[in-house]
Design brief:
The protein is mostly helical. It has a domain of 65 residues. The chain has 4 helices and no strands. The N and C termini lie far apart (56 Å).
């Protein structure tokens, strides 16, 4: 428990923030649906969990290493702007794919 004037250790704060933000953002995500299919089909939830965990570690590991590298080269404001632009571009491309697929 925190008292007035006390702050969390930066390592603990980073862990808590990343855990909570990813947990909340992934609820109901397509990844949950995609991992439930092989768990149901194979009846091997531990194997599916292990495979999904390894996949997340590989994908997120690359993202974390890239972000760490960018942090040394760019101001945090620029990293945020680049992330926002990439996120919007992906969203626009997905929207266009959907429109084109249904036209």
């Amino acid at each position: 428990m925190l008292h007035k004037g006390k702050t969390l250790d930066p390592t603990i704060a980073a862990f808590i923030e990343s855990f909570l933000s990813i947990t909340v953002s992934e609820l109901g995500d397509k990844t949950q649906i995609m991992t439930s299919a092989p768990a149901t089909r194979f009846g091997q939830p531990i194997a599916v969990f292990s495979g999904a965990l390894l996949a997340f570690a590989a994908i997120d590991g690359v993202s974390i290493l890239l972000a760490g590298s960018l942090r040394k080269r760019l101001a945090m404001g620029k990293v945020g702007q680049i992330s926002a632009i990439v996120f919007m571009a992906i969203g626009i491309l997905r929207l266009l794919e959907t429109v084109w697929a249904h036209s």
